[in-house]
């Protein structure tokens, strides 16, 4: 049994749907950063006990949400004692633009994991980038370093692309597979 935790923030529910699919794939609990940028009670303890931490944030103005950043800054207490050193980390982000500067968010998550001495797990799912690719194909958004998903500005969380959610599930499974290799 490997302990994986999915920690995320979502302002309007889209990233939350993605996080749920990732958690389902990884068979992991969800830890939601609230609207004030705080973890629920017991959250820090759950993260301390985890072998792998999967992080998610919407892309807001080309980066993580301020609530996620507040969580990241609060984790400096853990950083001081290198409490998360050697854990596995992985990341995902959702935004409305197909590109939307999601890569800046993912790069931030990778830097954050690296500051904690973490080991990064990439998406591990090939992109669908040939002529046969459709919006609902696996990894249509085409990330490598982490999971990238897209929801149009006028789409509700219920309208998240099926392929993106399936990619999220497969990403969760992939992190679980990699985590199990270390056991
Ligand atoms: C303050 C703010 C900034 C945003 N900045 C970006 C952006 O830089 N790139 C982009 O593609 N979409 C951007 N969006 C759109 C969100 O990424 C998109 O609505 C996403 O689904 C929100 O996720 P959430 O429902 O989990 O909060 C922004 C939305 C908000 C509210």
TrEMBL record:
Segments forming domain Flavodoxin-like: 4-145
Lineage: superkingdom: Bacteria
Cofactor: FMN
Gene3D superfamilies: 3.40.50.360
InterPro entries referenced in this protein's UniProt entry, alphabetically: Flavodoxin/NO_synth (IPR008254), Flavodoxin_CS (IPR001226), Flavoprotein-like_sf (IPR029039), FMN_Rdtase-like_dom (IPR005025)
Keywords noted in UniProt: Flavoprotein, FMN
Protein name: Flavoprotein WrbA
